[in-house]
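The methods section describes the discrete structure representation at length, but only in general terms. An entry of this sort, consisting of the sequence and the corresponding backbone structure tokens, reads as follows:
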Amino acid sequence: MTINNILWFRHGLRLHDNPSLLEALKSDCQSSNEPVKLFPVFIFDGESAGTRVVGYNRMKFLLESLADLDRQFRELGGQLLVFRGDSETVLRRLFEELNIKKLCFEQDCEPIWRERDERVTKLCETMDVKCVENVSHTLWNPNEVIQTNGDIPPLTYQMFLHTVDIIGEPPRPVGAPDFEFIEFGRIPAILASELKLYQQQHMPGPEEFGLTYDGNADIAFQKWIGGETRALESLGARLKQEEEAFREGYYLPTQAKPEILGPATSMSAALRFGCLSVRMFYWCVHDLFAKVQASSQFKCPIGQHITGQLIWREYFYTMSVRNPHYGEMDRNPICLNIPWYEPVDDSLVRWKEGRTGFPLIDAAMRQLLAEGWLHHILRNITATFLTRGGLWISWEAGLQHFLKYLLDADWSVCAGNWMWVSSSAFERLLDSSKCTCPVALAYRLDPTGDYVKRYVPELVNYPAHLVHEPWKATKEEQLEYGCTIGQQYPAPMVDLNVVAKRNAHAMSKLREELINNGGSTPPHCRPSDIDEIRQFFWLADDVVPEA
């Protein structure tokens, strides 16, 4: 007799550093050597892996990740069992028909998954199935961080760092699974039909979920491929980049020296779907840093700064874990209720489609639709333009757009970034008079104009000194360059000087009201120091955030 166990994939789409997989391979029988039969399962339930709000590119990345898992299991003699339906219903039928003894899965710590997991946990109790949840999507257990901080979320990043320092270093990756004595389960044909099991090696395409490609394929230069195999290959290239930076005396190379033209070495999409273990990435970078320090003259204190972006990811997870309204404004206890404009014209649509008349903004928004990815700095400037730096439209509208189209769209991290950029949270109380100008940033970030010309081909003939401000070209020059402003490419939709003064006044007025109201101000998350703000927004050296 075999012990039948299910490994339920949601995120964590990998075999390496997968404690839930190791748990599913255990029989838990102390008195016998009964073999384990493994049923690796993924369920398209309209929620798992962020499929409630999803666009074509992100669904394609997810499907590629599942296909990669399936290929690996087939090489071992099994397959990834992909179903479509309600998770509780599918699991109940599998429990009933397959005599399942144990269900194992990786923790989805965000509150948006809580109702699903509570239903499944209760189902396991009812049907006498052992339920094992493991923490491996995050470096630390967010609930443990909050408990260590006196059972309250840490309101500053420094407070978070202090708390995790008390907990200690994150666990190292677990060992590789041993499949030598493992059988893989099969689903009876009648049950497979009932539960809509995808048969053979057929993995559905995004079109089967009613999704269509919204971008311009002609400008989709960056090709992102999902799956553990590709993620581990990309990790090698990223570590080489990290090592070069360490040897030159700096860290966070993708932030310190942003390469918006690529090829991108970001691991964010692989981390978001768990194709790459965050613990593996973290420890690879830290071990590499220690190795470089030991063999070079570059010396600086080793700490969390060298993996700062991963630590911010942890911080945003922690701030969201007990806050089901974290992704909205009105009911969010840490979010300031800023009276944003309700757009009555096509302003929001023009921002989404990359038709604002500001080339850097438009290039970024078109890249998002075409490829599903943006550099961190481009995310910040497009978000600033939508909110406090330009159109004064709520960050909630921007969040929904990014959640749909970003490959690495992660509810906690994405919402956290939007709240910070819009001065709604994670920022000193509306003290945000310094907004990065999209034109000034364009000249710093894209001095040759090559990025803009790649994604806004209307401006391909404009010279570098005009491509970021094409409205300054004379009528004769515009005709010569083959793009007339207001016809082939839109004129700027707002006057930046006018909206900057208007928005600064609105922020100042709201800040004064909040201070005068005293106790009505929410427990406001805020940055720890000016350097934190400078790094996050990639501010120029001569731009000093006001105290």
